[in-house]
Amino acid sequence: MSDLDQAKRDLVIANRILAREDVVDAYGHVSMRHPGDPGRYLLSWSRSPELVEGTDIVEFTLDGKKVTDDGRPPYLERFIHGAIYEARPDVQAVIHSHAEDTLAFGITKTKLVPVIHSGSTIGAEVPVWDIAAKFGKGTNLLVRNMEQGRDLAQCLGGNRLALMRGHGFAAAGSSVMDVVRIGVYAPKNARVQTSALRLGEPLPLYPGEIEARTDMFNPSTAEMWRAWEYWARRAGVANLLGDPPKAARPSGR
Amino acid sequence: MSDLDQAKRDLVIANRILAREDVVDAYGHVSMRHPGDPGRYLLSWSRSPELVEGTDIVEFTLDGKKVTDDGRPPYLERFIHGAIYEARPDVQAVIHSHAEDTLAFGITKTKLVPVIHSGSTIGAEVPVWDIAAKFGKGTNLLVRNMEQGRDLAQCLGGNRLALMRGHGFAAAGSSVMDVVRIGVYAPKNARVQTSALRLGEPLPLYPGEIEARTDMFNPSTAEMWRAWEYWARRAGVANLLGDPPKAARPSGR
Amino acid sequence: MSDLDQAKRDLVIANRILAREDVVDAYGHVSMRHPGDPGRYLLSWSRSPELVEGTDIVEFTLDGKKVTDDGRPPYLERFIHGAIYEARPDVQAVIHSHAEDTLAFGITKTKLVPVIHSGSTIGAEVPVWDIAAKFGKGTNLLVRNMEQGRDLAQCLGGNRLALMRGHGFAAAGSSVMDVVRIGVYAPKNARVQTSALRLGEPLPLYPGEIEARTDMFNPSTAEMWRAWEYWARRAGVANLLGDPPKAARPSGR
Amino acid sequence: MSDLDQAKRDLVIANRILAREDVVDAYGHVSMRHPGDPGRYLLSWSRSPELVEGTDIVEFTLDGKKVTDDGRPPYLERFIHGAIYEARPDVQAVIHSHAEDTLAFGITKTKLVPVIHSGSTIGAEVPVWDIAAKFGKGTNLLVRNMEQGRDLAQCLGGNRLALMRGHGFAAAGSSVMDVVRIGVYAPKNARVQTSALRLGEPLPLYPGEIEARTDMFNPSTAEMWRAWEYWARRAGVANLLGDPPKAARPSGR
Fold first, then answer.
1. Which among B188, B206, B233 is the nearest to A100, CB-wise?
2. ipTM
């Protein structure tokens, strides 16, 4: 299987996981940088993530144009993806989501911070991007062109997650497996932080803890594979899983 | 397929979607204005929305009388539908629901306002109708005649959603697809607003944003179809879906 | 089908509905007064409600003794049922449940009150029974004998629902269909009231409204049947449903 | 069936129950002390609990070394288990979990206390272990060696449950059935306590009540079996259930 085919397969798995785990519904999308050309990215055409198959994946240039015009309507907000890839050579995968439990942090002054170990995937700093700051109070809130996408990417900066006021979030990962972890754990962290606010003043993770954990995001370990396999099975796409990384193999069996 | 048959098919899909998405349970209903006669509307007889099929759809005149008396018991509260169609020529579809997450806003002074982009479907202003104001404190809270229906419709005014104190809501849309979006997103918006109140003072959408989004409710776009298709599949009625609108077709395939 | 067989069939349906709707899990139970002998009641032996079948139903005298000793272990807390039947000739069905969303109202000073129309099933007054008041602070909280059962029944008085501090609730209905409605809607009402407390001061239903609705609990209407049928289908026991009452029949079909 | 085979079978059931009841996801694990050698314990290799089968169970010495090196990667945090067995001869089963609803109590000053009868499984005192207290603010929060495991076990002391700040919990039971009850009911108790804090000051169980209930954890009763059977069925492993204890058998059938 070619690198491109593997990338498409993993992107299909990611779409299905995010749908199954309620990170996306009919809306929201996940992309990967093209494995052979950093100036392109892979993203489904305008389909619900739950329905995405390998043949639905389309190649885009970073400015959001299709490499081959095949007549299939693209997502309106694809510019989120290209603008982040353009600004961040380290980023290999991007999610845009409206996951419900993170939204309250986009419309209040309370900052979303990592309070649980799995929540460290969101990074130490989670900026909130308000489209109205630069584009006025009369937009439809969607990121519809590169100018808006670049403004969002600038707000994201070197971070892993940016909330979008009244809308959702954009997450940037070092791999598709990494970005899926942000997608799944950001809402969980938000729920725990919200719940803890009822009980008192939540203690966030210490900066050194966040750093120690960020260093762990190695997709070739047994621990990372375990979740990927688990989520894929729940999403009904275990059949698409390739071989586990060496460290996750029951070599003694 | 005739316009009437298409309307009935779409109304069945709407019933199933609302049941699957927990907008209605055994109670609550959705109607459409008759495509060939604005003085009539289509609504199931007294069945749980989850069970509604095409043959369950009955024609009513706006005052809630069956066009043909077929002996099947109607919903007690059908007057909600007729009274809104009577007052609002622009309205083509109506939902009555007891969706749990909106109810708290009907029994407190806190106003339900759009705080997320999908929540803009509820419109800028959501009035609360209290049946006791005109009909006293001894009703069973149900809308059982045209007088009560008209009072509710008057409270709704030109808006898209009215809460009913201690009871539920009535939603009015420009199409069945449009009204289903109100039904699904009103509870989501309510949950986010409720959650945000724990974190601080929620910032609502700006009026210009609500307006910019309301202009978008065009059922012929790829974006609107995407959700309709997604919800129909989840509800197990993908087989009833007709052809996608032109803009949503993968013409290049 | 004899009255007793019908009663057992309906009791099986009730068990399955309460399990499916999360009113009971492995614990909690529902009983009916014996249709032919008001001095007896019908209740499963020690089985999870989700698994109860007709042959699991056992006859008890009101003091909690089996009419025929068949060697099957009974529920420890069956005394809740007998004590209520003994004190309340009007009661035909009883539920004991630990439904999660009602529990907070049993351990705080906030009173559970009907705030939504379906919540009117809980009645205007919901007392809280504290086993410690009469039996001390060293019980295991279970109602293990008639003395404790009678103390609970006395606290319940003429009401439809009593919360049990740190434990759950006992509900008393005029029919099995009626008591299932209390079981399902008490938690919903509790959730809405809890949620509303975040938004402000919840307005309860007016006394006249509760009364007007209580008068409606007629199991022979299309409206009552609609929910019973819906819940039975969700619980996978639609096949046990008998004929609908006359008012719910599509006689014109 | 040998004691060891029975133990493995019950451990598989426990894994599946905890996965089904959302106590663990891809992460979190449950172990049993070896029935024939108190210096060993049984634990799956690095698999998601939902997927664990009998052949996945591995024997470890208390210091976390495999008795037979079979090449299968172990859980990183297995030291939690061994350290607790080492310190507590009375403990026969251990769970490590990140169950969401308990997490808020690990990052605030509010103490988790039993407020409902099933919550008495957590015991009267639930300490919070903070890895930073002894190991500094730069760990990745995981318990990666015996020194950390022993520090956690010391914090747990003679109790049944210890929360782990920003991470999860460790539960210690007198049997696998007992520890599963802690795992399932600790989150339920946490939810009720959290919810009650919105309504007022929650009244905890009285010490004598907790004691009276702790005395009840006898796995040979009909009541304990009822839940074990119920959970196993929900988890799809009813086929693994052995014979019920004598007290739970329908001997008259």
1. B188
2. 0.95
